[in-house]
Amino acid sequence: MNALGAVLGPNLAWIAILIQAAIVIGALIFIPRDRKPTAAMAWILLIILLPLFGLLFYLLIGNFKLPAKRRNEQARINGIIQERAAGRDLPSPDRDWPRWFERVTQQNELLTGLPAIGGNKATLIGDYQGSIDAMTAEIDTATSFVHVEFFIVAWDDTTRAFFSAMERAVARGVSVRLLADHLSSGKVPRSKETFAELDRIGVKWAWMLPVMPFKGKYQRPDLRNHRKLVVVDGRVAFMGSQNLINRNYDSPKNIKRGLQWQELMTRLEGPTVAAVNAIFLSDWLIETDVLLVDEEHVPANQVAADPSPDSLVCQVVPSGPGYGTENGLRLFLSLIHGATEKVILTSPYFVPDEPMIYAITTACQRGLDVQLFVSEIGDQGLVYHAQRSYYGELLEAGVRIFLYPAPYILHAKHFSIDDNIAVIGSSNMDIRSFSLNSESSLMVLGESFVRDMRAVEQGYRDAGRELTLEQWKQEPAKATFLDGVARLTSAVN
């Protein structure tokens, strides 16, 4: 036995070395394909340092695209949307806008099939319960259909009236449909009661991106549908950052810390509601194989347009791993590069990639007023430290950073460009939202809308404090070390 061990010992060592070398060589061959260099380097570094763990982790979440069937279906749906939009006599937006902005609308339409449409109204709602109450009130007016789509859905004290409104709508004969992200809604406390209640009141519902390998439904488990939207009768829509749940997310951890989420939603009227509805119809088709476009769809040219001088040009921009490229990132970069005076960003999870950092810091170098609103505290430790790792670089470039005070998590997701362009939606300004999550953004051209957003931004300034470069330089080395480590891990996608 000792003789056998003496023979096998060196051989086992060589076998282990050969296996490790094979893993690393395989990683160098396969990982960089169609992946950003920073993400590829992060994966390769992980596999070199921890070969077996890194390989297993890569096999679990290394595929940053949805399965081909889903991607092909999304491409087919985009073609349907584009064909139907081209065949409609849509309200013509006022073309008195910068040429570069018109190019952005063309880019968005090429990627999503959804055009920019004029004649819209939009109202911002920053009150948490107030936004749910506004959606509830609209559901009570529904006569045809109600479409509800949220990353997180919960039946609790905050949303109980919303559920009751859906029940009354079903009783009136209104078709009520709901989509919820499988993993994120499923892990909320008392989730079984939530979906049992939907069954009881007669809402037709389905999971988005279900992770059910034994039922043949599986993709990378952290590819999630992060959208938040409601459409009533094709005439009114809501979209933004807020989920359908209590302000503390019904989480014992959040309740213990006293955390409260601060959100921003927008209520839409006008032809662009049809585009918001198109997102729901697309997701419903992908998840259920049921096409509703002829039953629960009001074409944009059949929705009354606002003829007033303050009417808005709106363009809905869905994005996610079902598309061939990063629609949201391209939108954000195009607008920042086109700005001439001011760029004001709000994001709860600000973990940008290199192109975004260059766009922001270049805007400062061009002499623009660039501001960033983030939370003073974080609810996700790794993301919070990764976000902090960019503060020094941003401050040195001239970005003004404002910290929204504890115990609030500033979860709103929006930004404004100059005095007449803004974006609001579900997308954070981080690598996950740009690459891995299905998101929805609304681009708006209109001075009145931006004035309202400026008022919201001023409220953030009044509530919080500005972080200066001098203050940042006083941060302890332990904290900034954790920031740097977290920044490395954020590139793994």
What's the short story on this structure?
This protein is 46% helix and 19% strand.
Plain-language structure description:
With 493 residues, the protein is an alpha/beta fold. The protein folds into three domains: 2-61; 68-101 and 119-312, Endonuclease, Chain A, CATH 3.30.870; 327-490, Endonuclease, Chain A. The protein is built from 19 helices and 17 strands. The chain has helices spanning 2-30, 37-49, 51-61, 68-86, 99-112, 128-139, 160-171, 182-186, 191-201, 252-257, 273-288, 327-338, 354-365, 381-388, 391-397, 431-435, 447-463, 469-472, 477-490; strands spanning 117-125, 145-150, 175-181, 204-208, 228-232, 236-240, 260-262, 265-269, 312-319, 342-346, 369-375, 400-404, 408-410, 414-417, 421-425, 439-445, 465-467. The strands form two sheets. It has a 15-stranded mixed beta sheet with strand order 4-3-2-5-6-8-1-9-16-15-14-10-11-12-17, sandwiched between helices. A two-stranded parallel ribbon has the order 7-13. The longest helix has 29 residues, at 2-30. The chain is globular and about 75 Å long.
Instruction: Kindly identify the CATH topology of the largest domain.
Output: Endonuclease, Chain A
The stretches of 5 or more residues where confidence is low (pLDDT under 50) are none
Shape: globular
Overall structural class, as computed from helix and strand content, comes to alpha/beta
| Biggest beta sheet attributes | 15 strands, mixed
Number of strands: 17
CATH homology group of the largest domain: Endonuclease Chain A
Percent range for β-strand residues: 15-25%
Q: What separation lies between the terminal Cα atoms?
A: 47 Å
Average pLDDT, to the nearest integer? 88
Q: State the name of the first-level CATH class of the largest domain.
A: Alpha Beta
The name of the CATH architecture of the largest domain is 2-Layer Sandwich
Q: Tell me the strand order in the biggest sheet.
A: 4-3-2-5-6-8-1-9-16-15-14-10-11-12-17
Portion in helices = 40-55%
Quickly count the domains.
3
As a whole number of angstroms, the C-alpha radius of gyration is: 24 Å
Please work out how many helical segments DSSP would assign: 19
